[in-house]
Amino acid sequence: WRMERRRSSSISTCLACPAGFYSEDEAATSEETCLPCRAGTYNEFEGLSSREQCTPCGAGTYSEDEAATSG
User: Residue 57 CB: number of other CB atoms within 10 A?
Assistant: First the structure.
């Protein structure tokens, strides 16, 4: 999760790392803490908190790219 302060409001919102990424940092203040799932893995959900939550590509499939969002 990452925090974002909206300029037009004093309300802060925690935003999830996008699909294909994860962050192990608590109290993150930037999307830069979101790291891509490694090649050969994917993640279709927002807000993962560890690399282990990235799903390995199934037998007979592969992904050369980091941050894949489907397997």
Answer: 15
pLDDT score of 14 more than 70: yes
52: three-class secondary structure by DSSP: helix
As a whole number of angstroms, the distance between CA 19 and CA 37 comes to: 9
Task: Please compute the mean of the pLDDT values over residues 23-51 and round it to a whole number.
Answer: 93
CA distance 8 to 65: 37
Residue 42 and residue 20 in contact, taking contact as beta carbons nearer than 8 Å: yes
**21 contacts: CB under 8 Å, gap ≥ 6:** 34, 35, 36, 37, 43, 48, 67
